[in-house]
Amino acid sequence: MIVLRRALLGGAAALAFVGPARAADFGPARYRKAMVIDGLSSLGALDPKAPGIAAQLAVYRASGLTAIHQTVGAAGNTPGRYEETLRRIARYAGFIEALPDHLVHVRTRADLIAAQTSGRLGVIFGFQDTVPLETEPERLDLFDLLGVRVVQLTYNKRNLVGDGCLEPGNAGLSEYGREVVAGLNARRMIVDASHAAQRTIAEAIVTSSAPIAISHTGCRALNDVPRNTGDAELRALADKGGVAGIYFMPFLRASGQPSADDVIRHIEHAVKVAGEDHVALGTDGGIRAVELNAGYAENQRRFYEERKAMGIAAPGEAADVFNLIPGYNEPARFLKLADDLAARGWPAARIEKLLGANFARLCADVWGG
Prior knowledge:
By secondary structure, this protein is an alpha/beta fold. It has a single domain, classed as TIM Barrel (Alpha-Beta Barrel), CATH 3.20.20. About 40% of the residues lie in helices and about 10% in strands. The strands form two sheets. Strands 1, 2, 3, 4, 5 and 6 form a six-stranded parallel β-sheet that branches. A three-stranded parallel β-sheet has the order 7-8-9. The chain starts with 6 loop residues before the first helix and ends with a helix. The relative contact order is 0.16.
């Protein structure tokens, strides 16, 4: 059941992001003012000096996206994660500096609005693991200074902060993890519980003084795999003012290639459980369309086998299942999804919340101005 009181946690903040920009890039007129945010995506391989950069930038614009959450942190319990993270931050910051007419580094609510009104693509720096902190939570000061705005606590496996979703012990947050959550709250950085174990998610929601994100997930009630989130956690997340982003990943169905219908099924279940003010999109994919040919299939097989060998492949991943939704395999995938939802009777206001207003409201709540 949708709990209407949850809307009070967001209030009018989400509506403040509506602006007149980018009308030429949007499809149906009713979405021209929407803020469109992918809660986890990627700029992809980017070379500002390459001959093909103009075409790549045109794809960004054609996507209709206002902003993406870009992973800049290294993940995994292997040496050198701190140093690799600094290199990645420098690389993405360099892309933005080299392309100021096309990209903007998003640190605040005002930056999101600036991206929307200027027609540039906003880039939100985030981590998918806390391993770059090693044993030094004070490193959050440096990452805050460098513009990291979202920090995911775990990546599938156990780290010093807590258990990931593949840990059978389901031990939740450690004392160190609680210290890290407090540090993120103090610096107004968004806590992200994607890839976390059930107890880690539940305890992060309770421990955090601010609403949190589960930026890319699915609904465990529809497909009972570790990467999906249970109804109890979705309700608790919403009650605290948080947001869950539905991904475009294999975990949406028990077997085989997921479809657009699977995406919509998980979105509608999440809205039923958490309320329309607390569900967003986090594809966990790129912006550009992918050519689904033999070469891509082979790359998928190798990618899966590497993850399996590292022990980080989750139930639901497979060598022959693409990490995308074929029906939404285009830059303007969110706008196509919006049309599909409209055809199912979704009102425009609810669609705009899903497309990005909910995530934007969470950013405003946590980051401030």
